[in-house]
Amino acid sequence: MVRFLLALLLLVAPATAHATDAGWALLRDGGHVVLLRHAMVTGTTDPANFDIAKCPTQLNLSARGQQQASRIGALFAARAAPIERVLSSRYCRCLDTARIAFEAEPEPFAPLDLLKTDPAEKAAQLTAVMTEIRGYSGSDNLVLVTHLENIVALTGVSPREGEAVVVEPQGDGLRVLGRVTF
Fold first, then answer.
1. Which of 32, 56, 72, 180 has the fewest CB atoms below 10 angstroms from its CB?
2. Residues 6 or more apart in contact with residue 56 via CB below 8 angstroms
């Protein structure tokens, strides 16, 4: 059993490294859209007293998450074309990931917030994000910092905390071009 698990781990690690290398190659060229899941947080759900305007009432970046966000920024600076814009969910964990990583004030973009439970509101959020992505035509990269469920709804991909998914519009949805793990 141990040998099987070790063999499985050895097979997965190179695939992740290859995916990361391919993602960096895309980002070096610029002109891409990146969906970035916020960095590591302190828990699993927001407290009952959640208030979007008050960070102490939300899940926030852990110390490891802050280090991860800093590493994300350093790697983007060293390995990718410049970042043209950073849009972020209004949740503090996303805003802080963006601030630490890209050393700039991100543009809060409510459609990147956690998806609403009402189907019509959820559809409106996803449409707004798709409109933003389809409208992007810059030569540098556009980063959208958001949450797991948003990225899954847009791409079908389930990224880790702090993972970047490089996408492009395709038909009514998005095509995943590459991924970068940190």
1. 56
2. none
For the ranges 8-17, 60-69, 73-82, 114-123, the lowest mean pLDDT is seen at: 8-17
Residue 20 CB coordination number (10 Å) = 19
Q: In the chain, where are the structural domains located? A: 2-180
Angstrom CA distances, 42 to 19, 65, 124, 141, 175, stand at 27, 8, 29, 29, 31
Task: Compute the residue count for the chain.
Answer: 182
Tokens of 46: 């927001």
- List the helix and strand counts (H, then E) for the chain: 5, 6
In this predicted structure, the answer to whether residue 1 has a pLDDT above a threshold of 70 is no
What is the structure's pLDDT at 19? Answer: 59
- Is 2-180 in CATH node 3.40.50.920? no
pLDDT digits (tens, 9 = 90+) for 134-175: 999 999 999 999 999 999 999 999 999 999 999 999 999 999
